[in-house]
Every structure is written in C-alpha cells, then in structure tokens.
UniProtKB/TrEMBL annotation, chain A:
<dbReference type="GO" id="GO:0032543">
    <property type="term" value="P:mitochondrial translation"/>
</dbReference>
<keyword id="KW-0496">Mitochondrion</keyword>
<keyword id="KW-0687">Ribonucleoprotein</keyword>
<dbReference type="GO" id="GO:0003735">
    <property type="term" value="F:structural constituent of ribosome"/>
</dbReference>
<dbReference type="InterPro" id="IPR036249">
    <property type="entry name" value="Thioredoxin-like_sf"/>
</dbReference>
<protein>
    <recommendedName>
        <fullName>Large ribosomal subunit protein mL43</fullName>
    </recommendedName>
</protein>
<dbReference type="Pfam" id="PF05047">
    <property type="entry name" value="L51_S25_CI-B8"/>
</dbReference>
<dbReference type="InterPro" id="IPR039927">
    <property type="entry name" value="Ribosomal_mL43"/>
</dbReference>
<comment type="similarity">
    <text>Belongs to the mitochondrion-specific ribosomal protein mL43 family.</text>
</comment>
TrEMBL record, chain B:
<keyword id="KW-0496">Mitochondrion</keyword>
<comment type="similarity">
    <text>Belongs to the mitochondrion-specific ribosomal protein mL50 family.</text>
</comment>
<dbReference type="GO" id="GO:0005840">
    <property type="term" value="C:ribosome"/>
</dbReference>
<keyword id="KW-0689">Ribosomal protein</keyword>
<dbReference type="Pfam" id="PF10501">
    <property type="entry name" value="Ribosomal_L50"/>
</dbReference>
<keyword id="KW-0687">Ribonucleoprotein</keyword>
<protein>
    <recommendedName>
        <fullName>Large ribosomal subunit protein mL50</fullName>
    </recommendedName>
</protein>
<dbReference type="GO" id="GO:1990904">
    <property type="term" value="C:ribonucleoprotein complex"/>
</dbReference>
<dbReference type="InterPro" id="IPR018305">
    <property type="entry name" value="Ribosomal_m50"/>
</dbReference>
Length: 137, 347
C-alpha cells in the first residue's frame, strides 16, 4: 500500500476568516533624566492610555532604561522582535512608530519585485519539460 | 669562488660560534706552540727572553669582563644554598601587613598624614525642605549677629560645624528683629540665655580679640542689665520669622551669612542668586522652590494613574528590566540558581 500524505484541509490565511494581530507585546523604555526621552515621556503620559484601550490584545510594558536612549520594542507571535530607537522624536513621531510596530507582521522586510504576489498556486501549474510541446532534436 | 662552495669549505664552528672567540683560541694555541718554537730557534736557547704572550695577555675588555663575571658566579653559588625558612614562618595569604617594595619617593606612596585627609566644607546632607531651611537661616542670622555683637570676625563661626543641642536650643529660642544694619537685632528670651550664648561665642577666634570681646561683653552686660526688664517684652513683640526680613546689603555680612547658610543647609548657592538676593527670605524661598521642583519619576506618576491601573494589558515597572527578570518570568531562574548552588558558585 503506497504511503499517502496528509491532505491539508485548510490553510492558515490570516484575515480571511478571522484576524489575529501579529504583535503580541510592546515594550516602552525611557530615561527619566536624558533629554532624548522628552518625547517618549510625553507619549507615556498622554497617549499610552488611549493606545492601551484601543489595543487590548497587545500587552504593554513600561520600564525605565537609565542613561540610554528611549526604545520601543515590539514582540510578535512568530517569536521575532523589532526595536525602534525613538531618541529626540516628538510625541506624534513616536505615535507613528508605535503604530508601525503594531501593524507589522514580525517578519523580516523583503523587497517586492513582482507587481502581484499571492499565496495561491498558479492556475497554469509548474512548468515541466516532459509535458506540453515537446521538441524533437 | 661560488658562494655555495665557499659555504661548504667553511668549518661548522665558524658558522655557529663567534669569530672573535675562535681567533682568540688560535692565537693562544699558536703562541704556546708555533711562535714559542720560533722564538727558541731565534734566541738559540730553551728559555728565550721576553713575554710568553707577545700580545700582552688579556685585553682591557676581557679583563673587565672576567672581573664582572667572578662576583656573579659567587652570587650564583650563594643562591644554590637552600635557605630554610624559620620555624615560626607563616605564609601570607594576602598582601596586608607585608613590607611594600617599590618606589616610596612620591606623595602617593607615602602613608597618609593628618594634613592629607580631606574634609569638605559642605556637609553631605542637604536640606531643601522649608521645615529645615528656615531654621538654618534663623540659626545663621543669630550666629552672625552674635559675632557682630562680640566684634569678632564673622566667618569664624564656620569653624563650628555642630552645636551642642542645649546651645542650639538657645539659639533657636532667640528672636531676630529685622534691620538693615544688623545692629541689636537679637532679642534674647532671658538674661541667662544671653550670658550663656555670649560665653559660648566668646570662645571662638584668636585670644587677643577675646580680651576686647570680654570688655565689650562687660559693657554690654552693664547696659543690658539695665534693660533686662524690657527684654522679655521686646522678645514677645518680635515676630517669629524676623530673620527672613534681614537685609543683605553689607557685603561682609552678606558673605558671612551666605557662607554659614550654605554650610548649614549643605546647598551650593549660585552666583546669580547671591548677586540678586537682597534679603534672607530670597534665599529661603529659592531653596524651598528648589526642593519642590525635584523631578518626579515617571514610573511613579504612571503608577499613580488610576486609569492605567485599571487597564489589564498595561504593566509598569519602576526598575530597569534585566535578563535576570526575564529568566524569573519564564521560570528559568530556578534552574540557574539550583545549578549555581550545586557547583558551589553561589552560597
């Protein structure tokens, strides 16, 4: 009896049926003393609350990092981390960076070469030299 | 001759030993044998006159070298003898108490002397709260007034870092009557306090001036005894915060007051504050404000926020999070700790 492979019943396509946010945790690090953390301190005082309310599925951790520049670090469900240094950035710019981390998939950034990308297999199938118009030499 | 052939013709000793030693050896051999035979033939006797060595023996350098080598050899011979340690010898585990070997000519190499110990003028403690700054200002004002009354150098009071509690209590019991000239500013609660304070402050400064001060005290005592009855009345009338209204116009008084005030509070006063302050209250207000403006930690501010506390997905830490914290969170720390204890690295 030939061995049979397990047939896939469904493929995980995030967003088709349900959407799971890839970012699971965001860490905010700041320094109480340094001037480069001024924007970060402002963000934590005035914007963190609304951001946490809007994104209850993201765990938020705030901890000081003395004598260092402020950093926002995103943790993703694929196990990867993304850290962005937000030194000397103002409140708006930090909000943009946090949003970027929130929406990121956690994968490494890839260059898009083709105009269209899809997870579906090609309708034409994979090209084979033994099928189709065979050439005789 | 080809270079390679020349190399073959050479004796091996000429390659590995210095040429000078070989030449010397040849010279000595020749002097003993060939040259000696020639000399005998020339003179026709077995004992020809002249030196055996026609070159005059060892050269200057050789004689020096041999002279140097002899003591070294003697020292080496001494070292070969085993020196048995004494019976009460105990091997040192640390360098404490051992004789220090090395250069001892520099100041840093010498043991510290009495003059080398540094004692800062400002104490380590700093007062910034109004509950402690205002009494310090009052104390400084009383002290400067006392020194002025006794006609002593005003900055001599800085030699006293701490008063006896009883004396301090007396100083704090005094009242200050604000005046621009700092004359007769102190109002004592009673005559006994006044005498005690005068006696204490009289001890400060050089002896020569003490005599003058004593004379001044006697004169003052006579005058004061007359008005002793009025003293309590005036004391009650002067308001409590009188020291803060004192003027700092006289540069000598200002300098002495600032020096003492700075010493008592432990606070450095900026040049701009010193130049702009015209009354004592300006200094007190400045330090009060400075104490209030101490920056609050963000973690404390966030932790106090009730809305953030209610949110289940927000966690605020007051301390820096290290990899050890992560280990504890994951549960890895127990294993690390157990392993370290097992190996005896942590007790």
């Amino acid at each position: 009896m030939p061995v049979q492979g397990i047939r896939t019943v469904s493929a995980a396509r995030n967003g088709v049926g349900a959407f799971i946010l890839q970012c699971k945790r965001i860490d905010f690090h700041y320094c109480d003393w340094a001037g480069s953390s001024r924007g970060m301190v402002g963000y934590l005082k005035h914007r963190l609350e609304s951001f946490a309310k809007e994104n209850p599925q993201i765990e938020i951790r705030v901890s000081p990092r003395p004598q260092k520049h402020p950093v926002v670090k995103g943790h993703y469900i694929n196990g990867r981390e993304k850290a962005i240094c937000v030194r000397n950035l103002d409140l708006q710019q930090i909000a943009q960076k946090v949003n970027l981390l929130k929406e990121a998939s956690g994968e490494k950034l890839k260059r898009t070469k083709k105009p269209v990308t899809s997870m579906n297999e090609s309708v034409r199938g994979i090209w084979s030299p033994y099928h189709g118009g065979l050439k005789t030499v | 001759m080809h270079p390679s052939v020349r190399l073959l013709r050479q004796d091996l000793s000429s390659i590995y030993f210095p040429r000078s030693s070989i030449a010397r050896q040849v010279r000595y051999n020749s002097s003993d044998k060939f040259s000696e035979r020639v000399r005998r033939r020339l003179w026709g006797t077995d004992n020809p006159p002249g030196l055996k060595d026609p070159y005059g023996g060892q050269g200057v350098l050789e004689r020096r070298w041999s002279g140097r080598q002899q003591p070294e050899e003697a020292e080496e011979a001494d070292h070969d003898v085993d020196i048995a340690p004494p019976e009460d010898y105990v091997e040192a585990k640390t360098w404490d108490g051992l004789q220090r070997i090395g250069h001892l000519g520099k100041w840093s190499d010498l043991p510290p002397r009495k003059e080398d110990t540094y004692k800062p003028f400002l104490p380590e403690r700093k007062f910034s709260k109004s509950s402690k700054v205002a009494p310090a200002a009052h104390q400084a004002a009383v002290e400067i007034s006392m020194m002025r009354m006794l006609k002593k150098p005003l900055t001599n009071i800085c030699d006293v870092t701490d008063h006896d509690p009883a004396i301090l209590e007396m100083i704090m019991a005094c009242r200050i009557q604000p005046s621009d000239s700092w004359k007769s500013t102190i109002k004592f609660p009673d005559q006994r306090t006044k005498e005690a304070l005068i006696y204490v402050f009289d001890q400060l400064g050089p002896q020569a001036k003490k005599q003058k001060a004593k004379e001044a005290n006697e004169e003052n005592a006579e005058v004061e005894s007359e008005i002793d009855g009025k003293l309590k009345q005036e004391y009650n009338t002067t308001r409590k915060g009188g020291s803060q209204a004192l003027a700092l116009k006289n540069p000598l008084i200002k300098f002495a007051f600032l020096k003492r005030f700075s010493q008592l509070t432990g606070q450095r006063l900026s040049d701009s504050l010193i130049s702009s302050a015209t009354r004592v209250k300006h200094l007190v207000e400045y330090l009060d404000k400075k104490g209030e403006q101490a920056p609050k930690k963000l973690a404390v501010t966030l932790a106090e926020s009730s809305t953030l506390q209610k949110l289940p997905n927000v966690k605020i830490f007051k301390e820096r999070q290290t990899p050890a914290h992560k280990d504890r969170e994951v549960g890895r720390w127990k294993l690390i700790d157990a392993e370290l204890r097992e190996r005896g690295l942590v007790t």
